[in-house]
Amino acid sequence: MTVELVNRSGALVPETQMHTLIDFGIEYMELNPECEISLTFVDPQEMEELHIKWMDEPGPTDVLSFPMDLPQSKGEAVTLGDIVIAPAVAAQQAQSAGHSVEEEIYILATHGLLHILGYDHADPDEEKVMFALQEKIVKEWSLTVTK
Fold it and tell me: Tens of pLDDT along 64-118?
């Protein structure tokens, strides 16, 4: 698995864990481990610019996903797309949720991966499926890593 990780946020992020989480998510979703994905951490200003440009919505958001290719056949290695996360927004959400910033970042990265793979939460049934799956992936991954 090729995870290109770039941190322009100015915040410390759990880089090693991000690589293993994305690798785990790709394997969990039964995709070719040679699929490529880009994971970028940005500051709130850059995230707000992206949010306005691509979603036509004001203010920074927590995570954005930019899908590129989906495998046309099982086992095909493709460039899946880009995930962009704002750690400062994640920190605010983590405080509200009562867990660590790292945990919030893990949830957001998994959420972004699922969006790239076509999952959505536009309606309550989709939301239930997507959020349960992201929770399951993060939980199962966390049992396999030493933090």
Answer: 999 999 888 888 999 999 999 999 999 999 999 999 999 999 999 999 999 999 9
Q: 83 φ, ψ to 5°?
A: -120, 130
Residue 86 lies in a domain: yes
SS3 79: strand
DSSP code for 37:
E
Q: Can you give the CATH number for the domain in which 88 is found?
A: 3.40.390.30
Put the strands of the sheet holding 2-7 in their side by side order: 2-7, 36-41, 79-85, 63-67
Query: Closest Cα partner for 109 from 51, 63, 49?
Result: 63
Q: Which domain holds residue 112?
A: 2-142
